[in-house]
Amino acid sequence: MALASAVFLTALGAGITSQRFGQPFPVQCSLPLAAATSCDSTTSSLPTSSTTTPVVAPLTGLVDPTGLSVRRPALTIKIENTPDARPQFGVDRADVVYEEIVEGGITRLAAVFNQFSPPKVGPVRSVRKTDQAIVWCLGGLFAFSGGAPYAVASISTAPVEIFSETRAGIAMFRDPTRYAPHNLYANAANMFQFKGTPTPPRSIFTFRESGTPASGKKVKSFRVGFRMGYATSFYWNVTTESWDRVIFAKPDITGTGVQVSPKNVVVMWITYAGGVGSFGAEGVMVGTGRAQVFTGGRTVLGTWSRATKSDPIVYRDSAGDVIPLTPGQTWVELAATSDPVSVVHR
Length: 346
Known about the structure:
6 helices, 15-stranded mixed beta sheet, YerB-like fold, mainly beta, globular, 2 domains
Protein backbone atom coordinates (compact mmCIF):
# COMPACT_ATOMS: atom_id res chain seq x y z
CA MET A 1 0.00 0.00 0.00
CA ALA A 2 2.85 2.37 0.85
CA LEU A 3 4.51 1.72 -2.53
CA ALA A 4 1.23 2.36 -4.32
CA SER A 5 0.85 5.67 -2.50
CA ALA A 6 4.33 6.73 -3.54
CA VAL A 7 3.71 5.81 -7.18
CA PHE A 8 0.36 7.64 -7.05
CA LEU A 9 1.94 10.86 -5.84
CA THR A 10 4.87 10.63 -8.26
CA ALA A 11 2.64 10.06 -11.27
CA LEU A 12 0.22 12.84 -10.46
CA GLY A 13 2.91 15.22 -9.31
CA ALA A 14 4.86 15.38 -12.55
CA GLY A 15 5.82 18.95 -13.36
CA ILE A 16 5.02 20.21 -9.88
CA THR A 17 7.49 22.63 -8.36
CA SER A 18 9.38 21.37 -5.34
CA GLN A 19 9.29 24.80 -3.68
CA ARG A 20 7.69 24.59 -0.23
CA PHE A 21 6.49 26.98 2.47
CA GLY A 22 9.31 28.91 4.10
CA GLN A 23 11.31 29.31 0.88
CA PRO A 24 10.30 32.83 -0.25
CA PHE A 25 9.42 33.47 -3.88
CA PRO A 26 10.96 36.40 -5.72
CA VAL A 27 9.31 39.72 -4.84
CA GLN A 28 6.06 40.22 -6.76
CA CYS A 29 4.73 43.75 -6.90
CA SER A 30 2.30 43.66 -9.81
CA LEU A 31 -1.22 44.36 -8.59
CA PRO A 32 -4.08 42.49 -10.26
CA LEU A 33 -6.62 43.82 -12.70
CA ALA A 34 -7.99 47.23 -11.72
CA ALA A 35 -5.58 47.91 -8.86
CA ALA A 36 -4.22 51.41 -9.36
CA THR A 37 -1.43 51.72 -6.82
CA SER A 38 1.96 50.10 -6.47
CA CYS A 39 2.73 47.63 -3.71
CA ASP A 40 6.20 49.11 -3.44
CA SER A 41 5.00 51.10 -0.43
CA THR A 42 4.01 47.91 1.32
CA THR A 43 7.56 46.63 1.34
CA SER A 44 9.72 49.74 1.29
CA SER A 45 7.90 51.70 4.00
CA LEU A 46 8.51 48.98 6.59
CA PRO A 47 12.12 48.77 7.74
CA THR A 48 13.88 45.46 7.85
CA SER A 49 15.49 44.23 11.03
CA SER A 50 18.94 45.69 11.56
CA THR A 51 19.67 44.00 14.87
CA THR A 52 21.85 40.97 15.41
CA THR A 53 18.91 39.09 16.93
CA PRO A 54 16.87 37.57 14.08
CA VAL A 55 13.19 38.37 13.84
CA VAL A 56 11.04 35.26 14.29
CA ALA A 57 7.57 35.24 12.75
CA PRO A 58 5.02 34.71 15.55
CA LEU A 59 2.74 32.26 13.71
CA THR A 60 5.34 30.10 11.94
CA GLY A 61 8.38 30.21 14.22
CA LEU A 62 10.51 30.84 11.11
CA VAL A 63 13.23 33.48 10.90
CA ASP A 64 11.81 36.49 9.05
CA PRO A 65 14.66 38.43 7.41
CA THR A 66 12.26 41.19 6.28
CA GLY A 67 10.87 41.85 9.76
CA LEU A 68 7.41 42.34 8.21
CA SER A 69 5.72 39.71 10.37
CA VAL A 70 6.19 41.74 13.56
CA ARG A 71 5.01 44.96 11.91
CA ARG A 72 1.60 43.85 10.69
CA PRO A 73 -1.42 41.96 12.07
CA ALA A 74 -2.84 38.58 11.24
CA LEU A 75 -4.98 38.45 8.10
CA THR A 76 -7.55 35.66 7.91
CA ILE A 77 -9.12 34.94 4.51
CA LYS A 78 -12.03 32.54 3.96
CA ILE A 79 -11.29 30.20 1.04
CA GLU A 80 -13.56 27.84 -0.86
CA ASN A 81 -12.54 24.17 -0.78
CA THR A 82 -14.83 22.54 -3.37
CA PRO A 83 -13.66 20.97 -6.66
CA ASP A 84 -14.97 24.11 -8.42
CA ALA A 85 -12.51 26.20 -6.39
CA ARG A 86 -9.49 24.49 -7.88
CA PRO A 87 -6.85 25.45 -8.38
CA GLN A 88 -6.73 27.50 -5.20
CA PHE A 89 -4.26 30.34 -4.91
CA GLY A 90 -2.10 31.41 -1.97
CA VAL A 91 -2.92 28.54 0.38
CA ASP A 92 0.69 27.33 0.36
CA ARG A 93 1.83 30.76 1.64
CA ALA A 94 -0.46 30.96 4.67
CA ASP A 95 1.05 30.75 8.14
CA VAL A 96 -1.84 28.68 9.47
CA VAL A 97 -4.80 27.03 7.72
CA TYR A 98 -7.95 25.88 9.53
CA GLU A 99 -10.19 23.36 7.76
CA GLU A 100 -13.72 23.53 9.14
CA ILE A 101 -16.96 21.67 8.40
CA VAL A 102 -19.81 23.77 7.00
CA GLU A 103 -23.33 23.04 5.79
CA GLY A 104 -23.82 19.81 3.91
CA GLY A 105 -20.77 18.31 5.59
CA ILE A 106 -18.27 19.83 3.12
CA THR A 107 -15.23 21.76 4.30
CA ARG A 108 -14.03 25.33 3.93
CA LEU A 109 -10.69 26.94 4.79
CA ALA A 110 -9.77 29.87 7.00
CA ALA A 111 -6.21 30.77 5.95
CA VAL A 112 -4.21 33.04 8.25
CA PHE A 113 -1.45 35.20 6.73
CA ASN A 114 1.22 37.23 8.48
CA GLN A 115 4.75 36.39 7.34
CA PHE A 116 3.95 36.26 3.62
CA SER A 117 1.55 38.28 1.47
CA PRO A 118 0.74 36.55 -1.85
CA PRO A 119 -0.86 38.75 -4.52
CA LYS A 120 -3.68 36.29 -5.23
CA VAL A 121 -5.54 34.32 -2.53
CA GLY A 122 -8.75 32.40 -3.00
CA PRO A 123 -11.36 31.87 -4.25
CA VAL A 124 -12.68 33.99 -1.36
CA ARG A 125 -16.01 32.79 0.01
CA SER A 126 -18.44 33.49 2.82
CA VAL A 127 -18.13 33.56 6.60
CA ARG A 128 -19.47 30.91 9.02
CA LYS A 129 -20.25 30.98 12.75
CA THR A 130 -17.16 28.89 13.59
CA ASP A 131 -14.88 31.63 12.25
CA GLN A 132 -15.21 33.96 15.22
CA ALA A 133 -13.82 31.24 17.51
CA ILE A 134 -10.88 30.72 15.14
CA VAL A 135 -9.84 34.38 14.94
CA TRP A 136 -10.73 35.59 18.43
CA CYS A 137 -7.23 35.17 19.89
CA LEU A 138 -5.55 36.36 16.68
CA GLY A 139 -7.42 39.60 16.00
CA GLY A 140 -6.28 41.60 12.99
CA LEU A 141 -8.11 41.54 9.64
CA PHE A 142 -10.79 39.17 8.34
CA ALA A 143 -11.66 38.97 4.63
CA PHE A 144 -14.70 37.19 3.20
CA SER A 145 -17.18 37.45 0.35
CA GLY A 146 -20.31 37.92 2.47
CA GLY A 147 -22.58 35.52 4.32
CA ALA A 148 -25.91 34.82 5.94
CA PRO A 149 -27.00 37.55 8.40
CA TYR A 150 -26.45 35.29 11.42
CA ALA A 151 -22.90 34.46 10.28
CA VAL A 152 -22.01 38.11 9.60
CA ALA A 153 -23.44 39.03 13.01
CA SER A 154 -21.29 36.32 14.58
CA ILE A 155 -17.98 37.46 13.07
CA SER A 156 -18.88 41.06 13.97
CA THR A 157 -18.55 40.11 17.65
CA ALA A 158 -14.90 39.09 17.22
CA PRO A 159 -12.03 41.57 17.73
CA VAL A 160 -11.22 41.82 14.01
CA GLU A 161 -11.66 44.38 11.26
CA ILE A 162 -13.96 42.73 8.70
CA PHE A 163 -13.74 43.26 4.95
CA SER A 164 -16.18 42.04 2.34
CA GLU A 165 -15.66 42.69 -1.37
CA THR A 166 -17.33 46.11 -1.10
CA ARG A 167 -15.19 47.44 1.73
CA ALA A 168 -11.91 45.89 0.55
CA GLY A 169 -11.66 48.00 -2.60
CA ILE A 170 -8.63 47.04 -4.70
CA ALA A 171 -7.60 44.50 -2.08
CA MET A 172 -10.13 42.12 -3.69
CA PHE A 173 -10.73 41.49 -7.38
CA ARG A 174 -12.63 39.25 -9.77
CA ASP A 175 -10.77 36.93 -12.14
CA PRO A 176 -12.51 37.27 -15.54
CA THR A 177 -11.28 33.84 -16.62
CA ARG A 178 -13.40 32.12 -13.95
CA TYR A 179 -17.14 32.12 -13.27
CA ALA A 180 -18.93 33.42 -10.15
CA PRO A 181 -18.98 32.71 -7.29
CA HIS A 182 -15.63 30.97 -7.72
CA ASN A 183 -13.79 34.01 -9.09
CA LEU A 184 -13.26 36.38 -6.15
CA TYR A 185 -9.68 36.75 -4.89
CA ALA A 186 -7.83 38.82 -2.32
CA ASN A 187 -4.47 40.53 -2.70
CA ALA A 188 -2.85 39.95 0.70
CA ALA A 189 -0.27 42.70 0.17
CA ASN A 190 -3.06 45.21 -0.43
CA MET A 191 -5.09 43.86 2.51
CA PHE A 192 -2.14 44.61 4.78
CA GLN A 193 -2.54 48.30 3.90
CA PHE A 194 -5.46 48.24 6.34
CA LYS A 195 -4.77 48.53 10.05
CA GLY A 196 -5.56 45.82 12.55
CA THR A 197 -4.73 44.96 16.14
CA PRO A 198 -2.81 43.45 17.71
CA THR A 199 0.34 44.05 15.70
CA PRO A 200 2.01 41.62 15.62
CA PRO A 201 -0.39 38.77 16.44
CA ARG A 202 0.42 36.63 19.45
CA SER A 203 2.07 33.27 18.96
CA ILE A 204 -0.50 30.45 19.13
CA PHE A 205 1.87 27.45 18.97
CA THR A 206 5.00 26.23 20.72
CA PHE A 207 7.82 25.42 18.28
CA ARG A 208 10.77 23.07 18.69
CA GLU A 209 14.29 24.40 18.77
CA SER A 210 16.28 23.85 15.58
CA GLY A 211 17.85 20.40 15.51
CA THR A 212 15.51 18.97 18.14
CA PRO A 213 13.79 15.85 16.79
CA ALA A 214 10.07 15.29 17.12
CA SER A 215 8.77 12.64 19.49
CA GLY A 216 6.12 10.02 18.79
CA LYS A 217 5.64 7.14 16.37
CA LYS A 218 6.94 7.40 12.80
CA VAL A 219 4.24 7.97 10.17
CA LYS A 220 4.22 7.32 6.43
CA SER A 221 0.75 8.75 5.75
CA PHE A 222 -2.57 9.48 7.40
CA ARG A 223 -6.14 10.25 6.39
CA VAL A 224 -8.57 12.65 8.07
CA GLY A 225 -12.03 11.20 7.46
CA PHE A 226 -14.13 14.25 6.67
CA ARG A 227 -17.44 13.13 5.16
CA MET A 228 -19.19 13.90 1.85
CA GLY A 229 -16.08 13.12 -0.20
CA TYR A 230 -13.87 15.66 1.59
CA ALA A 231 -11.52 13.21 3.31
CA THR A 232 -7.98 14.56 3.24
CA SER A 233 -4.74 12.57 3.20
CA PHE A 234 -1.19 13.61 3.99
CA TYR A 235 2.00 11.79 2.90
CA TRP A 236 5.34 12.33 4.61
CA ASN A 237 7.85 13.77 2.17
CA VAL A 238 11.32 12.79 3.36
CA THR A 239 12.98 15.35 1.05
CA THR A 240 11.09 18.44 2.19
CA GLU A 241 10.30 17.04 5.65
CA SER A 242 6.67 18.10 5.28
CA TRP A 243 3.25 16.53 4.69
CA ASP A 244 2.12 16.47 1.02
CA ARG A 245 -1.65 17.03 0.98
CA VAL A 246 -4.03 15.01 -1.19
CA ILE A 247 -7.74 15.75 -1.64
CA PHE A 248 -10.32 14.49 -4.15
CA ALA A 249 -7.85 11.69 -5.00
CA LYS A 250 -5.31 14.20 -6.36
CA PRO A 251 -2.25 15.99 -4.99
CA ASP A 252 -3.30 19.41 -3.69
CA ILE A 253 -1.58 21.71 -6.20
CA THR A 254 -2.07 25.49 -6.14
CA GLY A 255 -2.62 27.73 -9.14
CA THR A 256 1.09 28.58 -9.08
CA GLY A 257 2.02 24.90 -9.38
CA VAL A 258 3.08 24.34 -5.76
CA GLN A 259 2.27 21.18 -3.81
CA VAL A 260 0.53 22.11 -0.55
CA SER A 261 2.82 20.55 2.06
CA PRO A 262 2.62 21.87 5.62
CA LYS A 263 5.24 21.15 8.27
CA ASN A 264 2.56 20.34 10.84
CA VAL A 265 -0.97 18.95 10.80
CA VAL A 266 -3.06 19.09 13.97
CA VAL A 267 -6.30 17.13 14.11
CA MET A 268 -8.61 18.70 16.68
CA TRP A 269 -11.86 16.87 17.36
CA ILE A 270 -14.65 19.29 18.26
CA THR A 271 -18.41 19.35 18.71
CA TYR A 272 -20.47 21.24 16.13
CA ALA A 273 -23.33 22.86 18.03
CA GLY A 274 -26.50 22.61 15.99
CA GLY A 275 -25.36 19.43 14.24
CA VAL A 276 -22.47 18.56 11.94
CA GLY A 277 -23.14 19.96 8.48
CA SER A 278 -26.31 21.80 9.53
CA PHE A 279 -27.06 25.39 8.54
CA GLY A 280 -25.95 27.70 11.32
CA ALA A 281 -23.82 25.06 13.04
CA GLU A 282 -20.91 26.36 15.09
CA GLY A 283 -17.70 24.57 16.01
CA VAL A 284 -17.17 24.65 19.78
CA MET A 285 -13.52 25.60 20.33
CA VAL A 286 -13.57 26.36 24.06
CA GLY A 287 -13.15 23.57 26.58
CA THR A 288 -11.18 20.40 25.96
CA GLY A 289 -11.13 17.44 23.60
CA ARG A 290 -9.01 14.90 21.75
CA ALA A 291 -6.14 15.94 19.51
CA GLN A 292 -3.52 14.26 17.34
CA VAL A 293 -0.43 16.11 16.17
CA PHE A 294 1.61 15.16 13.09
CA THR A 295 5.02 16.82 12.99
CA GLY A 296 8.56 15.89 12.00
CA GLY A 297 7.36 12.67 10.35
CA ARG A 298 5.82 11.44 13.60
CA THR A 299 2.54 11.57 15.48
CA VAL A 300 1.58 12.21 19.08
CA LEU A 301 -1.86 11.56 20.58
CA GLY A 302 -3.06 14.06 23.14
CA THR A 303 -5.65 16.65 24.03
CA TRP A 304 -6.52 20.23 23.24
CA SER A 305 -7.68 22.76 25.82
CA ARG A 306 -8.78 26.37 25.81
CA ALA A 307 -10.13 28.35 28.73
CA THR A 308 -11.69 31.23 26.76
CA LYS A 309 -11.85 32.39 23.15
CA SER A 310 -9.27 35.03 23.99
CA ASP A 311 -6.74 32.30 24.81
CA PRO A 312 -4.73 30.28 22.29
CA ILE A 313 -5.46 26.57 22.13
CA VAL A 314 -2.91 24.39 23.91
CA TYR A 315 -2.05 20.89 22.70
CA ARG A 316 -0.65 18.44 25.27
CA ASP A 317 0.54 14.84 25.16
CA SER A 318 -0.59 12.05 27.49
CA ALA A 319 1.95 13.18 30.10
CA GLY A 320 0.51 16.69 30.12
CA ASP A 321 3.46 18.28 28.32
CA VAL A 322 2.91 20.82 25.55
CA ILE A 323 3.50 19.29 22.11
CA PRO A 324 6.05 21.41 20.21
CA LEU A 325 5.69 21.87 16.44
CA THR A 326 8.18 22.21 13.60
CA PRO A 327 8.68 25.84 12.50
CA GLY A 328 6.68 26.44 9.33
CA GLN A 329 3.11 26.19 8.10
CA THR A 330 0.51 24.44 10.27
CA TRP A 331 -2.85 23.00 9.22
CA VAL A 332 -5.52 22.53 11.89
CA GLU A 333 -8.21 20.03 10.93
CA LEU A 334 -11.43 20.80 12.86
CA ALA A 335 -12.86 17.28 12.69
CA ALA A 336 -16.22 16.27 14.11
CA THR A 337 -15.99 13.97 17.12
CA SER A 338 -17.11 11.01 14.97
CA ASP A 339 -14.64 11.62 12.11
CA PRO A 340 -11.99 8.88 11.96
CA VAL A 341 -8.25 9.33 11.43
CA SER A 342 -6.36 6.37 9.96
CA VAL A 343 -2.56 6.20 10.13
CA VAL A 344 0.00 4.18 8.16
CA HIS A 345 3.17 3.88 10.22
CA ARG A 346 6.71 3.59 8.90
